[in-house]
Model the fold of this input.
Amino acid sequence: DTAVSQTPKYLVTQMGNDKSIKCEQNLGHDTMYWYKQDSKKFLKIMFSYNNKELIINETVPNRFSPKSPDKAHLNLHINSLELGDSAVYFCASSHGGRDTQYFGPGTRLTVL
Amino acid sequence: QKEVEQNSGPLSVPEGAIASLNCTYSDRVSQSFFWYRQYSGKSPELIMSIYSNGDKEDGRFTAQLNKASQYVSLLIRDSQPSDSATYLCAVKGLGSGNTGKLIFGQGTTLQVKP
Done:
């Protein structure tokens, strides 16, 4: 059974389009995260939700909007995609903020 | 100055040797330190965490923390080709305990040659 899953695994789209990435965890965790990993492998946190409440909102363009319908799901919607948005996006989850974070398989987004 | 710094490598060691990976951090009040391993095309996987000064051993892995020098390292003994991956150092600050905010270094690529 997959602990943290993401869909889709690959996403190729044109500049200006709007796309969503979905994340689900079946670990019973209450905290979920979105990270962006650029082409140089640098992994940077974007957002974090605890019990559906936004607790981390890094300096991210407001074209990015996370949504957490419940504790087990965290989605990422991106409007007006730009070339610089091309990256691998990882979802992660943990028990609160103090526990180990478990990462999903990643979504490779390519903007053409 | 980057918050968490690692030498990007690649670090190349022969099979059976000790691989030494280093990381420095800028926030003096950082509390928690982690090493993640990431194989090419895969997601990061936690291999070690360390919270107090000194050494922590787990199998072939030893994490070392020196808060005075703001330095954390990972030693891999008896390196195997399967250890070839990128190793990410991550730091959690004093105020990040509840939020879980991790600051990652850029990673060090390790190559273990048979």
Q: What stands out?
A: The two ends of chain B are 36 Å apart (CA to CA). Chain B touches chain A at residues 38, 42-46, 49, 86, 88, 96-104, 106-107 (CB under 8 Å). The CA atoms of residues 92 and 100 of chain B lie 7 Å apart. DSSP finds no helices and eleven strands in chain B.
